[in-house]
Amino acid sequence: MDKQIIVLPGDGIGREIMGSAKLVLQSVASEYGHRFVFHEHLIGGAAIDAYGTPLPEETLDACMQADAVLLGAVGGPKWDQQPADKRPEAGLLGIRKAMGLFANLRPIKGFTSLLGASPLKQEVVSGSDMLIIRELTGGIYFGRPSERTDAGNAVVDTLFYERQEIERIVDKAFQSARLRNKHLTSVDKANVLESSRMWREIVKEKQKEYPDVTVDHLLVDAAAMKLITQPDQFDVIVTENMFGDILSDEASVLTGSLGMLPSASLRTDGVGMYEPVHGSAPDIAGKGIANPLGMILSAAMMLRYSFGLEQEAKEIEDAVDTVLEQSFRTADLAKEGDRVVTTNEMTERVIDNMTTKSVAN
Ligand code: NAD
Ligand code: IPM
Ligand code: MN
């Protein structure tokens, strides 16, 4: 298979972990005889420094032609005082919107070997395996107006959804539930927000088309509590943009580290952007200690969802499992007795386990 992959390392640890993903993909390519060509472009703070804008036209053009995009992370204190449209985050929101990537899939699995890494009790974390489906191109993130008014003494952000935006993400969630344990939890704030009341109505309408899927509705505050008290009660969660952002960072606690979580940002034709859930982690950037596994697992999701390479994706995921079973941990996960490794060492361990396995087969 011959694929052109657009690579957007971004800022902070984004650059460090992107190197890991490329090495892992190169290893897959040589093992299976694929050809992956990486085209690197700037986004976020790096793009502001070079071009004065977080999403340069040439980056956008390259992504619009792409089969798949890999993104590290954007942002950092250096650019925090910039006006809204000149912040690194505006570049990320802009690329998601321009590519129409409305469905953000965030799988969260409590790895058996990481049960002790979570601050939650093992019996709570045990058995948790869920998929958060976050609406990604609408809601309050993209509301107009979003501005200061009254000479700077008042402020407005707008939460806006069109029916079809909700319908398509709810369809995606039902379809995903069918491929898993057929249990969908829709999370909203229908006791307060009109947008949530319409969201809930649409889920109920759509349910008629998917009678084999069991549906629950949870208010977001209760969902936040249940996520870390009874996480094994969830299969697929579907929710609007900002609720999904917050709940997925919370759910990362089940794995022991935000650095573990991958994601796929998709539309209906298989084109996607693959990005870890975490940010640019300015507190550890440049130290070579970031956990690359969320990024590496995002690359595996790319192989699965954009290229249909299930076996290759599974091989990466199995190698990650094995490395964790061998007690290798980056600093974010390490407990006494673990074998603490750097970003690069962790990447090597994953690659070694992939190739060792293929030789053994
Ligand atoms: P963050 O996710 O960058 O970091 C939160 C905490 O988790 C930090 O202590 C960090 O060290 C740790 N962490 C995150 N990823 C890690 C990894 N791979 N390995 C080890 N530890 C890891 O969130 P923040 O500090 O609130 O935000 C920093 C910047 O990142 C901000 O500018 C924010 O806007 C941006 N951000 C970008 C994205 C993205 O590009 N997708 C996502 C979230 C935040
Ligand atoms: C994420 C991030 C982004 C978001 C920010 C950086 C715009 O937190 O990908 O989860 O809120 O979507
Ligand atoms: Mn987030």
First-last Cα distance: 21 Å
CATH fold category name of the largest domain: Isopropylmalate Dehydrogenase
In DSSP terms (H or I, runs of 4 or more residues), the helix count works out at 12
How can the largest sheet be summarized? 10 strands, mixed
Shape: globular
Q: Could you say which small molecules are bound to this protein?
A: nicotinamide-adenine-dinucleotide, 3-isopropylmalic acid, manganese (II) ion
Q: Radius of gyration, rounded?
A: 20 Å
Structural class: alpha/beta
Helix and strand run: EHEHHEHEHEEEHEHEHEHEEHHEEH
GO molecular function, one term: 3-isopropylmalate dehydrogenase activity
Catalytic activity: (2R,3S)-3-isopropylmalate + NAD(+) = 4-methyl-2-oxopentanoate + CO2 + NADH
Pathway: Amino-acid biosynthesis; L-leucine biosynthesis; L-leucine from 3-methyl-2-oxobutanoate: step 3/4
Domain Isopropylmalate dehydrogenase-like: 4-350
Explain the overall architecture:
This protein has 12 helices and 14 strands. It is 42% helix and 19% strand. It has 361 residues and is of the alpha/beta class. The protein folds into 2 domains: 1-102 and 282-361, Isopropylmalate Dehydrogenase, CATH 3.40.718.10; 119-254, Isopropylmalate Dehydrogenase (3-Layer(aba) Sandwich). The model has no long low-confidence stretch (mean pLDDT 96). Strand 8 (183-188), helix 7 and strand 9 (214-219) form a beta-alpha-beta unit. A 10-stranded mixed β-sheet has the order 2-1-3-12-11-4-5-10-8-9, sandwiched between helices. It has a two-stranded antiparallel sheet with strand order 6-7.
